[in-house]
Amino acid sequence: MLSLLRPGSNPRRELEAAAIALLLSIAIGSLLMLAAGVSPGRVWFAMIERTAGDPYLLGQVLYKATGLALCGLAVALALDAGLFNIGVEGQLSAGVLACAVTGASLPESTPGILAIPLCLAAAAAAGAVVGASIGALRAMRGAHEVITSIMLNAIVAGVSLWIGNEVLFQGGTTRGNTIVEGAQLPLLPMSGSSVNAALVLALVVVAIVWFLRVRTTWGRTWIAVGQEPAAARAVGISVARVQTLVMAGSGALAGLAAANFVMGHKHAFEEGLGRGTGFLGISVALLGRSHPVGVLLAAVLLGLLSSGGLAVGDLVPKELMEMLQGVVVLSVAAAGPWVARRSVTVVPEVAA
Amino acid sequence: MTTARLMRVASLALAACVLLCAGALFYGGSAYALERWITGGVALAVVGVACVVAGAFGSTAMRIAAVIVAAAAIAGAVLETATHSELFVAVASTAFGAQALKIAIPYALAAMGGAVTERAGVIDLALEAKLLFGAFTAAAVGYASGNVYVGVAGGVLAGMAVAALQLGLALRLTADQVIVGVALNLLALGGTRFLLQLIFHEGANSPPSPAFENTVLSNPIFWLAVAAAVLVPLAMLHTRWGLRLRAAGDRPEALVAVGASPSRARFAAGLVGGALAGAGGAQLSLSVGGFSADMSSGRGYIALAMVILSGWRPAWAAIACLGVGGAEALEIQLQVTGSGVPRELAPLLPYVLTLIVIIIAGGKGSAAPRSLGRVS
């Protein structure tokens, strides 16, 4: 499964597949714009012109990209181990809740050096718990992670709304208590946009995952499990344990994205905070061919598409951008095998 | 401790957690707390025994039995606490049964569609997309034509169209089946909203379409589902279509040996599967007389879990879906009769139930079609 996204394959081919998928998505997007009765050229041009000419919008793109990079990385990490984690949405929600509750319950005078790691740890731990339970169900019961993920997404969303309504939300609003000052991440100076220090965190995390993946036995282990579970088992790797741990790690990355939304921007638990980022993270990971650097690039690109979509909201319905998410994933799924098949010399098939 | 035994203990623990949570919700703060916890404990013991039995005797029939017992235990614990309320009366009525049946229709059709597609060897994670596009098309065509039956036909065709796209990508282009499924679901979520905006200039709801009468027995899709539950298994056993479908799923090389194409058999199966799921989608929108965004809300995934639970047998899958319908009807009753269940948590019942089902039934099992997902 997921055989065409295996790491360690030819980077040129990966780049080619991503480029074809992107072009295909843009072409389909253009057709959709034509269907909506606007000139595609005008929309794409306006999207780039308006975003590039406005430092505030550029900042918003980076803010979106920060969350997307972490969520995309979470999906990519699981893909490496042969698992399709579409539960990132729920893991992120769990992280948002845990992060905001921790931040708000710390004493007022907690210094940043203590508050920030505590909040990050809480967010990562909450995401990891949700992720690990998906991994454990897969490893021990053979339960398909896609089904359990969707169930857990719904359950986490319902439970966090319930906790919000019962305990957290202040007087008729859908906003909880503000987190302590020490836990708030500084905004980066971009004309008042929401981009914040979590961007640095995301870059560091990308570097760490890249290092683990390429330079450590650990990384090779989880990639081996993704590529050839039977072979991995034969050399003494516990596939069940690796799958569970990788899903815990994947969930932790998704949970960390809460730093961008809670600690960097809203400074409190809010209903629906970060919603949709987890699902868009799937597109990011697939378009980035599940490579950390590719994920980073794809995050910026899809961040541009999704906030650029808002910038041209007067020209095309915003639903179009929503639909493009699915188109991107579909294009990658189609382009990968096509490129692979084209570049491999076809050997006559031996009857199975 | 072996992994299997560990899992039995773990599923026991999980069932315990669920029941404890349920108990805390129902009994929390009440004067009768202790007495009710004991009831919860008895229910828990029953669930535990069911889990152990299910783990020990791995046959599908046993697993289904275990799930039914577990569901009954949970429902019993809920009911016991509400004996003095209107809930008990409400649940024991035929109206409740009719409502459960009605809710089960889309699940059952999607599950039968999924069973057919998967038996041919294609992982069918696109059920959600088939339901959603089926629901939208049925509502739109019904609105345009003013006729429910034309709407149903539209829904069926939409399901088949999604299936054709899915199979084309998965079989012709050998794209990853899991990713294609999820991509189609994302596409359906955004795509139906886009079409809603494009055609009707509405954000969330389509204009009212014709609707079925409210009674289940006069609903044509209910009878379609009943017919499918009888005919599909027969066709899978006794027709060339069914034989080739099963061969494509279990032994594609045998099909190749007799000069038939596994891909063609999979297409033939998938289109029927898509038609069934599309009809399920039509029920979603035409039973309430209109489409609203994301109205499938995870039903496709739940249906697929039931397919796995049933051991990939369409009729059993449909029967398992009756359980889901019952759970959802119970949840609605809980909200109507004003029990202590928070309104945010009551809708989670089907999802929690599905998780428990997956934990008990597992995912692989010897019943899985041998070439499932290995199409290339």
Task: Supply database-style keywords.
heterodimer, A: about 350 residues, mainly alpha, ABC transporter involved in vitamin B12 uptake, BtuC, two-stranded antiparallel sheet, 2 strands, B: about 375 residues, 15 helices, about 75% helix
Describe it.
The complex is a heterodimer of chains A (352) and B (376). Chain A is mainly α and 352 residues long. Chain A has a single domain (3-342), classed as ABC transporter involved in vitamin B12 uptake, BtuC, CATH 1.10.3470. Helix content of chain A is 72%, strand content 2%. Chain A has a two-stranded antiparallel ribbon. In chain A, α5 (112-141) runs antiparallel to α10 (239-256), α7 (198-215) crosses α8 (217-227) and α12 packs across α13 (292-311). In chain A, 58% of the residues are buried. Chain B folds into two domains: 3-81; 97-328, no CATH class. Helices cover 74% and strands 0% of the residues of chain B. Chain B has 15 helices and no strands. In chain B, α6 packs across α13 (299-309). The two termini of chain B are 39 Å apart. The model of chain B is unreliable at 27-33 (pLDDT under 50). Chains A and B meet through α5, α6, α12 and α14 of A and α1, α8, α11, α13 and α15 of B.
Q: What ranges of chain B have pLDDT less than 50 throughout 5 or more consecutive residues?
A: 27-33
What gross morphology of chain B would you assign? globular
Strand content of chain B: under 5%
Indicate the multimeric state.
Answer: heterodimer
The helical percent of chain A reads over 70%
CATH class of chain A: Mainly Alpha
Number of domains of chain A: 1
Largest sheet of chain A: 2 strands, antiparallel
The structural domain count of chain B equals 2
Query: Whole-Å distance between the termini of chain A?
Result: 19 Å
Q: What is the name of the CATH topology of chain A?
A: ABC transporter involved in vitamin B12 uptake, BtuC
Radius of gyration of chain B: 21 Å
**Strand coverage percent of chain A:** under 5%
- CATH hierarchy: architecture of chain A: Orthogonal Bundle
Q: How is the largest sheet of chain A built, in terms of strand order?
A: 1-2
Structural class of chain A: mainly alpha
Overall mean confidence score, pLDDT of chain B? 81
Total number of strands of chain A: 2
The secondary-structure class of chain B comes to: mainly alpha
